[in-house]
Structures are given as structure tokens and as C-alpha cells.
Fold each of these.
Amino acid sequence: MYNAKYIMPGLVIFLGLITFPLWFNVLSCTRYEAPQLALPEDQQECIIDAKVMRAEHMTLLNDWRDKYVRDGEITFTAANGKIYDMSLMNTCMSCHTNKEQFCDSCHTKNSVYPYCWECHIAPRGNQ
Amino acid sequence: MSKTRRDFLKLAGACACTVAASQLVGANAHAASAGHGPAVPQPGNQHEHALHGTHWGMVIDTKRFTDPLLVQKCVDACHLTHNVPKIDGPQELKWIWPANYLETFTEHNHYLPDSVEQRSFLLLCNHCENPPCVRVCPTKATFKRGWDGIVQMDMHRCIGCRFCMAACPYGARSFNFHNPRPYIDEAKMNPAYPTRMRGVVEKCTFCVERLAQGLMPACVEASDGAILFGDLDDPASTVRKALASKFTVRRKVSLGTEPSVYYII
């Protein structure tokens, strides 16, 4: 190869730099730790299984928003037949009264900054 | 296998006939299922105690609003329920507000009795049957609910272009020039209803969230019976009875917006 003695070390250095985040994380043994969430003490179950909620709550909230505002649909029937109002402030946050240790701890850790609370009022449980 | 031009044309003709026939059958089936005219949209799942109507309307008995305290009570009831910020001057936000006769009606007669000219008229969104704000909204953030005639705002969609404010002949819409939070009394904030953010337009919603819970609008509840609310399509409703027994006017009818708010003079 033409000029291999310059190109090969250059390639190695380049690959090393570009994969820096991967091997740095492996070598420094920093593991992602799921934040500890403040769960409601007086409630045993969420409207949907917690696992599904963790992955899909943003879709659910978006669906609720469309249904409530645009289709005039007010109630949500859970799998166990329980009926809830489709409301972030009045349903979700009435159990999850601690926004900082519930919403924010995960969102901040994952660099997600939803703008819910510019309009919606965080529960007083925060103060 | 060889195809002559004649064979090809025959096949093409047969295909065209089949497609045309299927389109015709499909169109007929669609027309049969839709019946006459477009289908009326229906709301989704509701509570059993929710109030139902097909055309919500309001009748305001202006003779009863001689007491400025009652006027203020209605305005406060609305603004506190919906966390409307208190800002003075040209950037104020209002869902319902008092005005005098000249500000309310465009048809002005001379020599009106003082009692009428000095009276307070409560103004709010007229929830028009033919709302110009809905026509101009580029994002469909404001829309008319097909099942009960309420002109509703979708705050998540509003981009703050203010076309609706220019279109509304009643001045019923207000723009959030600032973040409204600092202008809302923290102690009196209603934790069950959101505020708005900077850069969106807001207006009266005929208390859709209260109707869904089986409650009358906040101003109606605070008015001690001076404001009536009900279904204009139902001849037995309180509003229809009031309209049938008293002379009422609406604002700027000549514009063709067909307001749903009536004033007893």
C-alpha cells in the first residue's frame, strides 16, 4: 500500500478516537443506573402495567390529549374495568404527587426536556 | 404467444369497463351508508353525569346586571377557574368582561334610555355557528366541535399567529404576550386547570371541562340565574324558553357569524 506507514497508524488513531465513548464507558465501569422513582405509597397499581407505562407514557399522553381536546372523549377504561378521567394533572399527578422525583429524575438523566409544565400545573406535593 | 393490436385493445377495453363498474358500485354503497348529508360527529366516551347538548347557547339577562358586584363576580368566577392572568392595559387577557351598550352593539339608536346605555353587558366568545376564527386558523388549533357547537381551542397546536384575533369581530380572543404565570395569584391558582404559555391565543371555552363533569359554566353558576345556559336545539331547554318569552338580540348579526350568545335587553 502506498504510504502505509503513515496511513495505518492514522487509521488506528482515528478509529480509537471515534469509538472513544464506547471503550471509555467499558473501561471506566460506569453503568447506567435507572433512577429511583418516588412511587405513590397509597396506590398499588397504575392505569396500565408499569412496564408498558415506562416505555409508552408519552404516546399515551399524546393520545389522551387528542382524544380529550379534539374528540371530546373524557374517560379512559383500564384493563381491569376501572374508569379514569384522561387528564395529566387530575389523574396522573393525583397519585404521582412528586413531579421532581417522578417525572424529572428520569427525564433529566436521559436529557429529555418535555414542555408539559409550561402550561400544566405541577402538583403542590413538590413544595 | 403473439398478441395482435386488436386483442390488446379488447383487453384494455374490458379492464376499463371493470374498473368503471367497481367505482360505480363503491360510490353507490358509500352514498347508501352515509344517508342524507354528512354524518354528525359524536363525542367519545363520557361520564354518565356529563351534560349533553347539540348546540350550547347562552342567554344573558342584562336587566339583572345592575349591580357591578354581580358583574365582577361572574368575571372573577371565570378567570379564577381558568387561571386567566391579570394584566392591565392593551396586553390584558380576558375570557369574559363587561362593556357598555356602545361597545357591545354596533346598531346605535339616538336617545336611548340611560338605563340601557349605562348598563353593563357581559361579553364573551359567542361560539358562532359560522366562526371566522376557525376559518382562518392555519393549524386548526381552533375548531368547532361538531357534536355540540362549542368553538374550542387546542393550546398544543396554537402557533400564536393571531389570525383568529384579527378575524373575530367580537374581540373575544386574547394573546399571551408574556409568560402568564407571574401574573396569576399563586394562592388562588386552580390546580385542576392548566395555565397557558407565552405565544398562544386564549378565549372562553363555554367551560367544556365543567360540562364534561356535569357542571354548568362557571359564570352561569356565579350569576345567580342572570345568565342562562342550555341546548338551543332543545325546545324545552331554559334558554329556548327564555328566547321564546323575552325579546333578545345578538351582537353583529349582520356579519353572518350566527352567535350563540343572546342578550335580553
Amino acid sequence: MIKQNLLKELRLIVGKENVLSSPEDLVCYSYDAAPLPADNLPDAVVLPSSTEEAVNLLHLAKARGIKVVPRGSGTNLSGGTIPIEGGIIIQLTRMSRILEIDSHNLTATVEPGVITRTLHSAVEQVGLFYPPDPASANVSTIGGNVAECAGGLRGLKYGTTKDYVIGLETVLASGEVLVTGGKTVKNVAGYDLTKLMIGSEGTLGIFTKIILRLIPLPETKKTLLILYPNFQAAASSVSEIIANRILPTTLEFLDKVTINCVEAHTHIGLPRNAEAILLIEVDGSKWDVEREAEKVVEICSRHQPLEVKLALTPSEAMSLTLARRSALASLSRVRPTTILEDVTVPPSRLTEMIIEIKRIVQRQDIQVGIFGHAGDGNLHPTFLTNERDEAEMKRVEAAIREVFEVTLKLEGTISGEHGIGLTKARFLPWQVKPLGLKVMKIIKEGFDPENILNPGKIFTGYSP
Amino acid sequence: MRCGLCLAVCPTYRELQIEPAGPRGRVALIRAVAEGRLSVTKNLAQYIYGCLNCLACVSVCPPGVRTDELVSGTKVQINRELPPPFLRKLALQNISPFPKRLELSLLPFYLYQQTSLQRVVHRLKVMDAFSERWRDLEYLLPSLPRKPMREQLKEVVPAKEVRKHRVGYFLGCAQDLIFTSTALATVAVLTENSCEVVIPKEQRCCGMPHAGYGEIEQAKKLARHNINVFTSAGVEVIVTDCATCGCLTKGYHTLLKDDPDYAESALAFSRKVRDIAEFLSQDINLRQDFGEVKGRATYHDPCHLARGQNVVLEPRRLLNLIPGLELVEMKEPDWCCGGAGTYLLSHYDLSTKILDRKMANIAATNADFIATGCPACQLQLRLGAKRAGLKAQVLRPIELLNRAYQIAHLRHTSRA
């Protein structure tokens, strides 16, 4: 009965057509892109169209003691939008207006439901650039990107979402609307609450307006593909490129397993004796790009590559990026279950990290393909397994634990860009230590004393 | 894996933006039914039937999940557990498998068009009193032919000069009963190119409407019938100008994979099927003595041609051969038009939303001709052109090609 009343109230707030509550609907909101069981259903899904509606929803949730899970397109890989304690899912895709692109102040003001790619196209049309480009950019929303602090392929040179969000409008658990930051790049009025919100995974509030910093669109870019007979040569090339004060916008790495899977799937003619591939893109002014591409070729050639390919036309560039673009598709076809990790180490520790991962998976007798953003040390060891094989899944879990241990030993982080969510909550204390966790919990309690917002995420067994 | 990359390309998700209206949601629903967490309900059926079967999700899915096949399989299950509506059952079981009855079923529409009724309705602006939906439906059917194609065409049409190929023509219901000008163009272009064209009178519907509504046994029945008919016709190749017929008939061997009696003949049949654009641009030496067709054309990729058969470049190659014709690419040429068989009838609001997105892209090309290789797309785009107030003519590439030959002939005759 309580549920019927709740539905009535939800419909009153957002309109009948914006409340989903059939058993079929609820099944469709029991998962996101994380490889987790879809066992927990929400009580309802609501799609607000304005800040006011979001405010009313949180007032209602607070009054009824109902949990709230904010959601964009549901493409996060850490289980951040799975309703493990039920409650209502607030999906923000109806709030999808680009409110302003300000060419004088180089900012964009958007609603949270704007698709990342839509924003890219809109700002690029006026010669501006919003660099963060997670692999899900065609689907993901800016709101979700901010909540997860999404990264992507351009992290090394341009940073990640946190480097571009300068203002937020956030509905708090209390139903109050907190406005932080603004259109200025410089802003030191008290604690930087904007930055605090970025990557908070929906546990501190729901974003309803986002101000992003933009930069001028680079004039041109050049794409290179380098094939190596061993991965040490690739790794040394990467450190030498960076040590030579060159910051490629993209510096991607594929290992032998990934190369073999890509070749088996796409037949694009990658040599079978290649054990590592680097995909490098440099961007900037014509002059800079020429000079940097030349320098990159020179550096890479010194490390005995099998082949160095430089794209001369955009279509050649597209074909060079094909191997990297096919990596996930090729790996995910090998076995029924694909688990994508995102450990990250300082770039200088990359070689050690890869050697360690290979050692771990060999000992656990499991299959892993490694690719990722070599430039910023963010690797995606991709575990190829079968969720129905219990014994193997145990070994995969053990391997992942070991990979995390090694990552921390190498001064890295257990998550570069996917977030903690449910999947890594157990491991967060390893990295942030008791004091770090204590401070985080104090912040969470200050914002959301009744633990209404996205319960169970980031902290395990968290109860205030 | 539930990465959700399919959501970016799913036309229904892009309009509705709710998970059960996208491929990832549909697959989740299907899995929940298989695992007994959900039962087959009307609501479930509605979500499953929301799928356009445009295959866009399949084309981007990293692990290659065949959402289309999962959806088809679930429709069969839905039919088993929920009795289909009477009219649909009648249409699929008792009318469409039989060409004569199908012809007869269009008679009321033909009479409406041919007696002065339609003219009166238009003159008195009767339709203005109806909602947009009814006005659109009234406009949907183009002027119907007096006689179906199978009665107009001889069973064997000889090649114009020397006979080099013996080609079977899979006529398809739409060409037989609605777009007879397409059928005439196809036959004319084939005979122009040294093909003897065999059009077996006994051929029937390809079975796609049945497969699309989960009547899989009826689809198989039609497949067996058509295989028999074309096998005994003794043709080297089976040409179709309908994207949907081609898509299904090329897969007859998969449809009949559990039927040992037909394993061999189905495969032989399927291997012979070629879309008209494939056949003309790849299999034969096409005559290139075209006349000029002046204007701008844009090409819309039918889902069942582009993704269903990987026929993308061939129609464009043909259009580019025509002197005077300028081919202008639209944005998102392979984005579904929302036609999807009977989608306009079953999901009017959503179908027109998807259509309006398509028409905006088409309008931007300023084209005089909107060419597409599928009758369902043609119906939908014809309506779209009216809704968008475009003057452009909607037709198949083969019609433009035929026009180019005809113009050349006219020149020739007038010179002689």
C-alpha cells in the first residue's frame, strides 16, 4: 500500500509518463555496465525534467525515508547505479539541454543529461574543445561523467573531467540546492566544494546544472601506429617520449594477447610476432604537430620497432586507430564474461606493472588482455572468464586482489577512471587508509546524515 | 557484458531514453523471462515489439550479441503464451500467405482511390476533421495499380538482345501490389542487360511479416514453398529489389536449419539471392549507355540492406553512374526511418518521431530524389516528405537507373 501511495506522489511530481514502475521496467534498472548480478530491483524509476522536480523528489525521499540512486545512461563500470537497497532511481536523461556555450568566457553550461558526444560536437562546431572522452562518450551523460570523474584517451595531455568542471548546481539530500563555483577559472572562496562533488558517485548530491571550462580546439593532429617485438621496447618509448617534453594527446598501448584477439576478430593484418602496439596522436598547431610527430618517430625508431606507420590522410588515421578501437570488442568475444579493470600507476612504473600483471595471471592460470592509456599509466587489464565457472571466478578474484596490491606498492591507484561504486568498495581502505576513510565518512555524514543518496557505494557496510 | 554502447545507435532509445526501450533493456527482459524472473505479459510484449529490428545494435555490439535473434525468439514465445489479436492472426495466417487473398484485401483501398470517394474526401477536406494520425494513414498508401504485377508480367520475359543470364525475379508483395513501377523498372533494366527474367507466378510472400510477428512456422512454410518454386524454375540467380525480401530469403537456410529435407535446397536458394544493386554492379557488365537524369539525389540506407545484407556501396555506385545526377549524402544515412514494416501502424507516435529526425537530415540535402532500396522505407519516406513539406520524389535506385536508359532510348529514337 505504501508503494501505491509512493507512486501516486511520484507521479504528482514528475507526471505520469515519467514514472516507471512495472516489473519489466524495474528489471531494466537492476544493472549498469558493471559485471555484477542484477538481483536488486528499484521500487520505481523517475525521470525529472527540472531542478524543481528533482528538489521535490528529494524532499519526498527524505520525508518517506526512501533511498535515491541518481543515474544517467547507466554505462559506469563500478556498479555505481545499481539499486542494492531498492528505492527510487532518478534518471536525469530528460534534463538534456545545453543551456549556453559562452565563447567569451570559454565555458559551457549544461544540464546533466546531455550526452558527452553531443557536447563534443556542439562546442567543436564553434572551434572549442571539451577534452574528456570516456570510451562510452556516445552514450554517457555529462552528469554521469562528473559523478564518476570520467577519464578517457586524452588524459595525459588534457586531464580528466575534474579539470574542466568549474561550477555546479547540486540538489542535496535535504532537498536544498547548493550552488558552487561559477564561470571563473580562478575561485578560492572557501573550500572547493565543486571539486569535492566531482567523482562523488551520487553519494553527496544530484547535479542539475554543470558549468564546464572549454579550451580552443587544436588546429590539427597526426596519428602514428608503432608495432614492437616486445613490450619493454614499447614501454621505454613511452617514457622517452614524455621525458622529451612531448605530451601526445593519445598514447595507447595494446599487449600481445589483445593484438592476437584483435587480429583473430578483424583480420586487419597485424603481424603475429608483434608483442606490443602503441597508438600515438599528437595535436596542436600545424607546426607543433609536424615537429612532435617527427620527434616521436625518431624516438620510437630507436627502440627497434617492427614497423612505424604515420597516417598521411584522415582515412589512413582512421584505419590506424582501428586496432585500438576494436580492442574491447575483440577481447569480449573470447569468453562469456569480460571484466575490465582500470588500475593506474605513475607512467614510469608502467613496465613493472605490466610484468607483475603477467606474472599474476600466469600463476592463477587465467586469461588477461592488457590495453590502455599508457601515457597516463591507466591500464585496462581485461579478464576473460566465465561467470558460471565458480573455480575460475575464484582465481580471477584472487588475481584482481593481487593486482590491486601491486598497484598500491607501485604508488598507483586501484581506480583511475571507473570509480569505486560497489565493485571496489572492499578495497578502498587499502588505498586511502583508515584516516582517509574516516574523513570521507565525515563528509558523507555531513551532506547526507540519513544515508539516502546512493547507499552502499564507495563505503562497504556503511551505516551512519 | 552490459556496456550499453548500443544505446547510442538505437532509434527507439534515442527518442524515448528509457532503458526498456533500448537493446540492453530488451536483452535484460528476455534473459529475465528465460530465467523465470519475469513472465510473458502484455507489457513485456509491448517492450519487445518496440524493437524496429533495424540491427543497429548488433552492428556496434562489442561481444556481438544478436539482439535481433533474441527478440525474434521471444516473439515466438509471446505468441505461444498470449493469443495474438484476431485481425493480426487473420492477416498473417489466412491472407498474406495467399497472393489472391492479399490482392483482394487491398480492394477496398483501391475502390476508395478509384471511385471518386477519395477525390470527394480530398475536395471537401474531410480529413481535416481527423487527427494527424488518421490523415497520415490516409496518405500512406500511394495510388494502387489496377492490376497486380504478377498478372501484368509474363512468366518469362526475354532478354532484349542476346541472352546471357537466366535470372529469377523474387517479386515480393510490395512490388506485386503497390510499387509496380519498381517491378517494371527492375525487369526492364535486367532485360536491357541481356537477362532473361523468370517471374514464377506461384511465388509467395517471403515470410518476413510472419517472422516479424513470431509466426515462425508460417514463415517456414512460405520459405519451403518459395524454395520449391524457384528450384524448379531453373535460374542461375534470384534477384530481388526489396531489402526485406532479400534479407530474409538470404537467410532461408538459417530459418530452415532444423529441417533436414530442406537443408541443401535452402542453402542453394539462399546463395543464389542477390539484391538488384549487388547483381547489377558486381555480377554483370552493366551497360552504361545512359541518358541524363538531371537533379540531386540522396540515398537512404534501408536497415535490411545496409546491415541486413551489407549492401551499402552498390546502390550508390549505380546512382553515381547516372549522368546528370548528383548524389548528396545525408547525415546518418543508415539511421532507421521508423518504417519497419507495420511500425507506423502499431507505434504511430514513436514512428513519426524517428521519421522526423530522418526527414530533417534529408531536407538538409535539398535533394530532388530520395532513393532507397526498400518498399517499407519508401512508404514511410513518402509520408515523411509530405509531413516535412518536401517536393522530392521518393523512389528506388532501380527506377532512376531505368529512367536513364529510357531517356537514352528516347534520344536514340528521335535522332533516328
